[in-house]
Specification:
Elements (H helix, E strand, L loop, with lengths): L6 E11 L2 E12 L3 E5 L6 H8 L7 E6 L4 H4 L1 H7 E4 L15 H6 L14 H13 L15 H14 L4 E5 L7 H16 L3 E5 L3 H7 L2 E6 L2 E6 L1 H4 L2 H8 L1 E8 L2 E9 L4 H6 L4
Parallel strand pairs: 3-7, 3-8, 5-6, 6-7
Antiparallel strand pairs: 1-2, 1-4, 8-9, 10-11
Helix pairs in contact: 5-6
GO molecular function: ATP binding
Function: Part of the ABC transporter complex HmuTUV involved in hemin import. Responsible for energy coupling to the transport system.
Keywords: ATP-binding, Nucleotide-binding, Translocase, Transport
Length: about 280
């Protein structure tokens, strides 16, 4: 099933919290072989969209298909093999699992491939080891999750998602709690996964990382999709002002382009003292 699953396609997604719409008619497609950055201000609906696409949150309206099949047709276990999901926090493992060793947390990523109560196979152990190496967390394999720093914990949870070895990986703010070195390592890893044929969707607040590492950006604001396209197309002055209320500075280094927030749209201090900006 997963070998022929080439895309996740969502159409008309809505999610209501009472009278408030967290998502309002969002269409979105994620294809294998690309890394897509999901960007937008706080409360835009990014995490909500990710959870719906991962199959952990049902929409109020609209539908999601995986290789043309509905979640019901695929089944929970097959869907868990096809779509790996990294939450913003450790909440997805439960409060009672905080004392588990890091390696045992990563091993949870192999559950979709195992029968109930079955022991880990050689293939499972190999996948766990690869995932921990990729996420740079093998060195604290035996430490409990609740004894790790925030950044170390994120790397363990990323390894758990990688251990699924799914054709799609959805990651919610994987770089937010990391130091600069590990931010770069994680983004390079996610881009490499896409180049190897995985479909990667990652929510990001860091526009420099999003514009540098992503093939495509989807911009959400107030539960609606404002733009979907190349980083240059999405991070233009008008859209940045509308969604983030900031002006961006655009630059390139060693052939890679990036954009970063520069000033609020109503702040003319820098423009007056520096003669404006490009």
């Amino acid at each position: 099933m997963t070998a022929t699953m080439d895309a996740i396609v969502a159409s008309g997604l809505k999610l209501a919290h009472g009278a408030q719409l967290a998502l309002d008619g969002v269409d979105f497609t994620l294809r294998r072989g690309e890394i897509v950055g999901l960007i937008g201000p706080n409360g835009a609906g990014k995490s909500t969209l990710l959870r719906i696409l991962a199959g952990v949150l049902p929409p109020t309206a609209g539908q999601v298909s995986y290789g043309g099949r509905s979640p019901r047709d695929i089944g929970r276990q097959q869907l868990a093999r096809a779509v790996a999901w990294l939450s913003q926090s450790a909440d997805s493992i439960g409060d009672d699992n905080g004392a588990m060793r890091a390696r045992d947390i990563v091993a949870l990523g192999r559950l979709p491939h195992r029968r109930a109560f079955a022991s880990l196979t050689a293939a499972d152990h190999a996948a766990i080891g690869r995932a921990m190496d990729e996420a740079d967390c093998r060195q604290f394999s035996d430490r409990p999750l609740n004894g790790l720093s925030g950044g170390e914990r994120v790397r363990v949870l990323l390894a758990r998602a990688l251990a699924v070895e799914a054709p799609f990986l959805l990651a919610d703010e994987p770089a937010a709690a990391l130091d600069p070195l590990h931010q770069l390592q994680v983004m390079r890893l996610l881009r490499a996964k896409a180049r190897a044929g995985c479909g990667v969707l990652v929510t990001l607040h860091d526009l420099a990382l999003a514009s540098r590492f992503c093939d495509r950006l989807a911009l959400l604001a107030e539960g609606r999709k404002l733009a979907d396209g190349s980083p240059d197309a999405v991070l233009d002055d008008a859209l940045a002002a509308r969604a983030f209320h900031v002006r961006l500075a655009h630059a390139s280094h060693r052939g890679e382009r990036y954009a970063t927030p520069w000033e609020p749209v109503n702040d003319r201090t820098n423009a007056e003292t520096e003669g404006g900006h490009d």
